[in-house]
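Troubleshooting: if your tokenizer reports a length mismatch, compare your output against this known-good record of 305 residues.
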Amino acid sequence: MNAGPVRRTVVFGGPVSPAMTLSPQRRGPGDPCYQSIDGAIWKTSLQDSGPVTAHIAKVGRDAVECTAWGDGADEFLHGLPDLLGLHDDTTGFAPDEETIAAAYRRVPHLRIGRTGRVLEALIPAILEQRVTGKDAFRAWRLLVTKFGTPAPGPAPARMRVPPPADVWRRIPSWEFHLANVDPGRARTVVLCAQRSDSLERLSSRVSADARIALQSLPGVGEWTTAETAQRAWGDADALSVGDYHLSNMVGSTLLGRRIDDAAMLVLLEPLRPHRQRAVRLLEVSGLARNPRFGPRLAIPDLRTI
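Known-good structure output:
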């Protein structure tokens, strides 16, 4: 173990955008585990070897440098190329659909990274089930701030390292209540924390098989599994079916009209195994259209019940 600072530079075969690659790891503007300051990214994580704070910055058209502090620094830097998408495989991705093809031409350097940290991707996804992003991000911020640990090294103020599994499984029910997390989601968080060792081992399996295993857990459905697979395993095909806005965005962008999940699956089927890559391209290229119709999803304040 090395408390840091330690450094590593990763050089790519073309243009690179760490902010674009890492943006899905951010859970809202107040995420205590992720901050973007002056073009650089500060990120915390709990590795097998301990906590880490990482400062990730682009240092050239094709290079990214990371400085890391904490007992998990060496382990984090070992996985840095995967986190930044160095090994992201675009083999077979040649979209015929005009808008997706235009997005690919506009952002050919989009890379899908992987953290290999299942619980760190799964728990915030559980908190985001059936609620608005604002409500879920608040719950994540409150719980991690209270039960996480201070970020090692010269981290920005208020940054925290996510709690380990044994802490998640012992959080009292009233603390979830205060964070506006209903009992169903709270039970799922605790259940997954109890099975953390088995869940982390899924990172050694093919993502499609790991998704099937993950979805077998009570309270973990297709949407939650996809959101986890995208981040933990860099799954370029894990489509977030069941998302409140996704099918609307895809239909409005590609067809000029709203569609449901079933129609979205048919529309994106020719892009398998890169369906999520296509969605990310639409989002980051600026070509996505997502008109709002009707009121936003209303979420009850459980703290008043």
